[in-house]
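Hi team,

As requested, here is the filled-out complex form for the adenosine monophosphate run. I kept the field names the same as last time so the parser does not choke. Let me know if anything looks off before we queue the next batch.

— J.
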Amino acid sequence: MFQAPKGMRDILPEEQIYWEKIRQVVHKIAKSYGFERLDTPILEEEGLFIKGTGLSTDIVQKEMYSFRTKGRDRLVLRPEFTPAFIRAYLEDGLASRPHPLKLYTIGPLFRYERSQKGRYRQHEQANFEVIGENDPVLDAQLIQAFFSIIRGIGFKDIVIQINSIGCRQCRPNYRRKLVAFYNKRKRELCSDCQKRLKQNPLRLLDCKNERCIAATEEAPQTIDNLCPDCHNHFKNILEYLDELEIPYILNPRLVRGLDYYTKMVFEVWPEEEGGRQSALGGGGRYDNLVKTLGGRETSGVGFGMGIDRLVNLMKEKKIKVSGESSPPVFLVQLGELGKKKALKLFEDLRRANIRIASQFSKDTMKEQLKSADKIKAPFALILGQKEALDETVIIRNMESGSQETVPLKKVVKTLKKRIKR
Ligand code: AMP
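And here is what came back:
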């Protein structure tokens, strides 16, 4: 027997209501904040992420599904959205549209991660980006949009973790301080962090290894080392968040590990969790990425929201989602002629927007009425040999058991009246 690839899974029919609910809220909130939808291909050139996300990042080093096509191109299953959005922004002439440009999408991402509960090799994200301006009010309103989605789904106790990791002006100096600090503690660090110290020292701050956490306790903090521009930007964002009454905590260890982030970075967590699983999502500002990928100097800020994680949390928190109620009518057919006429009647009812259940492959009245009972259909339509010949149909009130025979031609009208009542 075949199995789904490791770390990938099927989303069964009964799960779909959660996914639908989240997608609905995402689309509604996106629209209300003025975001337009942009869908990009699932495959992209490998180089896009090497250059955009960064060669030394975990995503590129360990997690990309990359392969060579028959035409010898190096492609990857997209591991994240942001570089793909910027590629489209540059390729499709979006750069010439009025700014800031607000774009969003929802779809699958692929990362070759160690699979465990809540971490899959195919997962879905909603992704929001605001491209073209540097105003901190955009950062704050973007965080508000994330918050509104979470609220819209029905979660209450959510908290934002936020930090600023500086820019090209102030980060080199901070980086030097950080490297000097860790060089003195090199032996206390895990082997990954010893490597990171050369390539990506900010990543040492968010290593989950106990020894590294202990070694980091007294590390210099980014927010004490920001240039005036970054400092003011961050201060303004926090003031806007206060105004919006969005609960946040400053987390000096939050760095988000991708090369393109500048200034503000954030994550969204259920309040009671301080790192137990993964965040519900996160993002930040990226003021150099457009230029890195070949465009003009252009600012951007965005986030990714993990839908799988939200679905799991909805179930944990027993958040109610209303599925569609079952159809009000069950169509019972008997005999060859009855089946033929019922097949046509099903179409007439469907076109008249009456929702109907049926079991065309079952032949006995008993079996079919049992199914009608099971879905608690208030009405059954019965179409047997006699009715088929007379061009009539029986409407049975399932609760009282009373029945009336109506001409086939009038059944839509009569049924609509009965259902309304
Ligand atoms: P990231 O793009 O890594 O910032 O992830 C954004 C959000 O997507 C995370 O906070 C998670 O909720 C979710 N996420 C990331 N990776 C996975 C994964 N492998 N499986 C499930 N959800 C994920």
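Two things worth flagging: The two ends are 51 Å apart (CA to CA). The chain has two domains: 13-170+226-316, 329-415.

Thanks,
J.
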